[in-house]
Every structure is written in C-alpha cells, then in structure tokens.
TrEMBL record:
<dbReference type="InterPro" id="IPR012674">
    <property type="entry name" value="Calycin"/>
</dbReference>
<dbReference type="GO" id="GO:0008289">
    <property type="term" value="F:lipid binding"/>
</dbReference>
<protein>
    <submittedName>
        <fullName>Retinol binding protein 1, cellular, tandem duplicate 1</fullName>
    </submittedName>
</protein>
<dbReference type="InterPro" id="IPR000566">
    <property type="entry name" value="Lipocln_cytosolic_FA-bd_dom"/>
</dbReference>
<feature type="domain" description="Lipocalin/cytosolic fatty-acid binding">
    <location>
        <begin position="22"/>
        <end position="113"/>
    </location>
</feature>
<feature type="signal peptide">
    <location>
        <begin position="1"/>
        <end position="20"/>
    </location>
</feature>
<keyword id="KW-0732">Signal</keyword>
<dbReference type="InterPro" id="IPR031259">
    <property type="entry name" value="ILBP"/>
</dbReference>
<comment type="similarity">
    <text>Belongs to the calycin superfamily. Fatty-acid binding protein (FABP) family.</text>
</comment>
<dbReference type="Pfam" id="PF00061">
    <property type="entry name" value="Lipocalin"/>
</dbReference>
Length: 123
C-alpha cells in the first residue's frame, strides 16, 4: 500500500472559511489571523488531515466515500454527518446536519493549498 505524507505550510488560502453566521465573532477574528499548517497523510482510501495552529488543532480521520460523524465542538459547536469524495484532484466534503448545504473543497495548486468552504446563510 502506498503512503503519502504531506506537510503544507503557509500559504494556506482561506476562502469564506470563518465567515459563517454561526461562528462566534471572536473565533472569526482569530481565524483570520492564523497561519495554520496542514499535515495530510494519504494511504489508499484512508486520509488523515491535521490542521495545526497556535490557537487550535483539528484532526480529521476518514475513509474516502464513507459517511462518518464529525464532531466540530470548539470550531462551531456542532456535529454533522460528513462524506468526503474525490472530484478529479480535489477533495470535496459534504456535511449534513441542522443546516444543509455545508462543506468544503480542498486542492493543491502549485505550492499553495486551497480551501473553499461552502455554507448557506440562515433564513
């Protein structure tokens, strides 16, 4: 089995990452100042993504295409059912919970790791 480990340092491109209506204003301000590292370990369909920063660390451990319960306590204090799949060379996440239409897309372009968060505003 082939194992790839990738530690990506800044630049880490945030696009709408901490601007959801349910994210605490203090957390939003802190998140915009962070320069997190990403440690990504990819072994077959098993992927571990560690987001490392001076403020908070977050680990995702999942199998591509398999739904799992994601605990986002401390991020935006919610739990959701998450499925992550490959679309070409991009990891695409769909989160199902109290608010539908959430998720993100991750990809590497040149030396930059991109993350675009998808969310729908509250009614």
């Amino acid at each position: 089995m082939h194992k790839t480990s990738l530690l990506l340092c800044f630049p880490f491109i945030f696009c709408h990452l901490a601007h959801g209506p349910d994210v605490n204003i203090a957390i939003r301000k802190i998140a915009t100042l962070l320069k997190p590292d990403k440690d990504i370990v990819h072994e077959g369909d098993h992927i571990i993504i560690k987001t490392l920063s001076t403020f908070k660390n977050y680990n995702m451990d999942f199998y591509v295409g398999q739904e799992f319960e994601e605990d986002l306590s401390g991020v935006d204090d919610r739990k959701c059912m998450t499925t992550i799949t490959w679309e070409g060379d991009r990891l695409v996440c769909v989160q199902k919970g109290e608010i539908e239409g959430r998720g993100w897309t991750h990809w590497v372009e040149g030396d930059e790791l991109h993350l675009v968060r998808k969310h729908q505003s509250l009614p």
